[in-house]
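Predict the 3D structure for this chain.
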Amino acid sequence: MKQNASTLRQRRRQAQRPATSAPATAKHAPLTAWTPAPLTARMLAPLRLFLGVTFVYAGIQKLTDPQFFSPDAAGYIGRQITAFAAGSPIRALLLNLALPHAALFGSLIAWGELAIGIGALLGLLLRPAAFFGGLLSLLFFLSASWRVHPYFYGSDIVFLFAWLTILVAGPAAGGWFALDTYLAAWLASHIPPESSVRFERAANVALGVQPPAVDSSATRGRTGGRVGRSGRYVSTTRRDFVKGAFAGVTTTLGAILAVTLFSKGGSASATSGYPPAPTATTGVGDVATATVGGGSPIAMASQVPKNSAVSFTLPASGDPGVLVRLSNGNFVAFDAVCTHAGCPVQYDPSSRLLLCPCHGAAFDPAQNAAVVQGPTDIPLASAPVHVDNATGAITVSS
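Done. Predicted structure below.
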């Protein structure tokens, strides 16, 4: 009995002793994986910043371009629409709807890009901005980039999926402030309490924000919505919004295809196009005239100085064409539609090249329009030229 009591006291004393350091030969604890740093809130910051800055720049560039709204200029939006319509699945939509109102259509694009970019940078109506940014990129993909092969060489399809990513993420994208959180809180404070539930659902889907999880009954009764102490809503995403976004994109694609297939007079107007202004670019500032029409002279040899060009319409396809008189006096003609994204090229007397104003492609007319600078590697299509030695009339055969 005494022995048991002594043993019990020894165990108690051992338990009360401070723990000593483990001997040097003790084994280390088993190796476990570390937890990644929580940077998920900022992983979309470069994408959101890039999209915002790019669209702001694109809008400003169009609004300040003197050629964009000038019908007589080579970079006129109407000419670009005509070039983009060639081979596009939405050709009828471009020629029947956009082309007759080219200046208005160009203004909507320019101001729309500016508004979308500002919305992405400030987080103001971010989800609507991302939706319309994706819609605009989709239209560009189906028109300006449609003839780019392989498809991933064109940037518009990349912009489309980049905007879809921001659309799903909502104001959480970027990791910096979003004015939508304050906008929703302000709106919630000005709606009746009985409409708070519907407002919260609408804000969740349209803006990607919801009230904080902490709910104060006093705050709810005063503001008509669950607003946090900081007076802002919390960014969020939901499964139902992803379904809604998918349904919206599907509906948009269906509407575009329906307009293309069932547009009245779509096939008849497909070859009409927009006739370019009959102007020429010369090295000495002269202007030569051009007559549009199959079999009719497009210019007189005496009116086209060396190192100059004349714009006309190809009688066979209706595409814009360009007639160039080389420095040696010879005449050559080409389809002016750039083989990259369909923009009409223009002759530059200083470099003696045909240049694309959209993406910088360059072609050498003296070498059968061979590619001098990408992004394309396909030369321009040539057009046979005939010069009447007796009259000096220049014609392009079909």
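The first strand starts at residue 209 and ends at 210.
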